[in-house]
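README: folding subset

This subset contains proteins for which both the sequence and a predicted structure token string are available. Records are stored as plain text. Below is the entry for Secreted protein (883 residues), shown exactly as it appears on disk.
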Amino acid sequence: MSSLMAAVRAGRTAEAVSLLDGMTDTERRACFPELKELRKELRTAPWNATSRRALPALHVAGAACQTGAAGVASWVAAADMRWSRVSPALLLHVLGDRDTDWLADVTHRLAQRPVSASVPYELMAGLVRLSGCPVPTTEAYVRGWVGHHGGSWQRGGTLCDRLRSDPHLRLLAAALFETADIGGTLEWPNQEGPDSWTGALAQLTAVGALDRSATVDACVARLLRGGPTTDQRVFLRLLKTLALTRDEEHERIADWLALASDGTSTIASHAQTVLGALALDGELTPRNLADLSDAVLFRTERKLVRTQLVLLGKVLTRDRTTADELLPSAAQAFGHSDSDVQERALKLVERHADRLSSAEARAELVAAAEQLIPGLRVRAARALGVSPTAPEPVAYEEVLPPAPEPTRLPPAPATVEELAEEVGAALATEPTVADLERVLDGLVRHWYDDRESLLEALEPVTSRRWWDAAEAHWTDRFGSAPRGLSHPSEMLDIVLATLRGKLSTATLDSRIQRGTKDHGCVHSALSRALESRVWNLAHRIRTDPMPFLLSTPTWGTGLLDPTELVQRLDTYQRLGARVSDADFAQALLRVRRGDREEAASAARGAAALGSPEGTRLARWLVCEAPVSFVSRRRTSGSRVLIELGEVMELQAGLPAEFHPLGRPVSAFGESRYCHHWSSAVRPYWLAVLPERRELVAARLLRDLSALAVDDTRGAAAILPLLAEADGEAGEAVHLGVAYGLGARHPEDRLAAVDALLVLAARGQLDGARLGTDLGQLIRRGAVKPQRLAESVRNAAATGATSCVWGILRNTLPVLLADLATAGSATPPRGLGDLLAVAAECAERSGARGELPHLAQTADRRGASRLVTQARRLRSSLAGELAA
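--- output ---
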């Protein structure tokens, strides 16, 4: 036993195997406890420790010295030995002398392990061969089988040859179709061709190595089951490679109908193609074709719908007797969201309506025609031989979401235990401004009242932070980091590290004296003000604790109630506490001045305090909050940016670190590249100036423009918060929303739509300004019409139809003017989609009047989407129905 342990510890695997071969089962079992102890010891050893060279020998020895199948399987597949396993051949060597039933048990236990356990396929296959047990069809075994054959190209031969020589081919090939998320594995290393998995399986089916009927059924069943896109793509490719005969296709009509209804767009298209060919050859009954039409015409993909209408037209032309059954199915498209599709379906009905013999079918078509857009209903009535109903006056009512009400912040956690829980939650997530402000205020309050209890409650939370176990010179990097703070958790970490004594007083003094760094970027003014407050807070915790924070907002937007601030100053005065300059400056920037009556009343109370801070607050409250800022537009490539002039109010009487907030904002003077890449900190910038959102929006405008111009992601998350904030919603806010509506990623466009709806609900949306901005951005190439069309369509779907029309009526003339002046110029791609949304909004809202340059577009030749939608919009604005 000692010889075996010495060989294992020294990592001499071959010697350990030799010793194991000469031992009895009893001697092996006697070694196992010491092997377990060695395993425990190695679990805690560093990765670079020399002792870890024992792992391969330990792996094989532990497997050989156990008698239980469950224990052996667990040892062999253990995660702590995954990177130091011995070869499957060695394991098979030491296990090969066991009973076949025992080996079969181990085999199936290993095969049932998750794929992440990475049990070698060669080991499982070898155990199958030794035990003679049935082949497992678990996910781990099947994936291992695929990887073994697919990655064996270096052994020569084709994949088809290797699979044909496998004795378990039929069983494992059948299991392949039952294995989830296998598509990516089957596509490597070749997606197509004779040496790909799809090519090899098709060849094996052709030569009879695989049963054709079973393979086709399994492939179709896998498509019907759905799953990841990769799986669907692979098995559809296999189905096409199998080249089904007409009889095989006919046998599976029900399956094709189901795939056409519920499959992905690509799969539905294939099913539609198969059924279409059967229908044109007369091998599909009218009832089946009607079922196919009911399924496909309900889908949103215009290509599938158009193809189905073309198919119906061909069948109706060949067989006049099918009109009663097929035309009502074609009328399913009358309710499609795309008016072009509606018109195609109506043309089909117009062409074949004279073949209707059933009054029931005609009545069904008349009822379906009510779903058509107003401009097509007269034509439908004429085609069906009924009197057109007079259009009812549009009784439109705009439906906007309720304007969000600001939520008041609950008081700081009352106990240190509750505070510790909220601190842990804030560190583990991205806390809102309200969450972080409550936590900071709670830390200041409890530090002032009972330091020992606070530190005791925080110990389980702070002991897991990187700075708590680090050396002092590592934690002092907080004070010298040139990049500043980019995440809310870093602000909280500074305060917590100060409480725990991990940031020295010298570091805090140095940071306060040196001030925050100007990064030379357009965000620098906001970040400096935010960081200055945090560093001053940490310094006061160490040198002169405060009873609470003056600047904790009253509402979640960051605004502070002026009466509440007066009460806080009064409490400070009674306690004899010294006010922090940075904390008071932030309180001034947050205090609400929009309600002039409330501000004047609070100013009188502040003046009555008789303190310097009370006098300063009284003057601040009676000053009129700036309504607008001197600004001008500047262009940079395809971008349109805003430059703001100087705001002297934000530079007089505030600490130096806050002065940059009032300095001019340039579109070109600041660096375009900075470390402020995280979107998590942007809501805190807005909370620095919650009643001056235009200033914040101007500094964020380049980031917002990148959503549309550079296809970046995430910056639009600030737009709903900007819409909920206070102050003027001017050029910068509207331009930011415009860029968001044209963003590359859907989630950013949805955020911009939310912002648009909030502004509209609050009565702050300037539709003319936003619409004109969008028109100019499209002309410059910053915003793509297709993206904008999707955004405004989503906004209109919420009920804001009139609001969207108010925007588009100012966007479209800018774009249509170019077509009118340039003559044969190619229109921007997606302009027809924008016109379609505009037409729908005009129809629903009952808008009337003329749109500049629309007539020239509507009078263009052809029947393109652009022209048809321009005609539809013109008719709607004129109050006409198509004749």
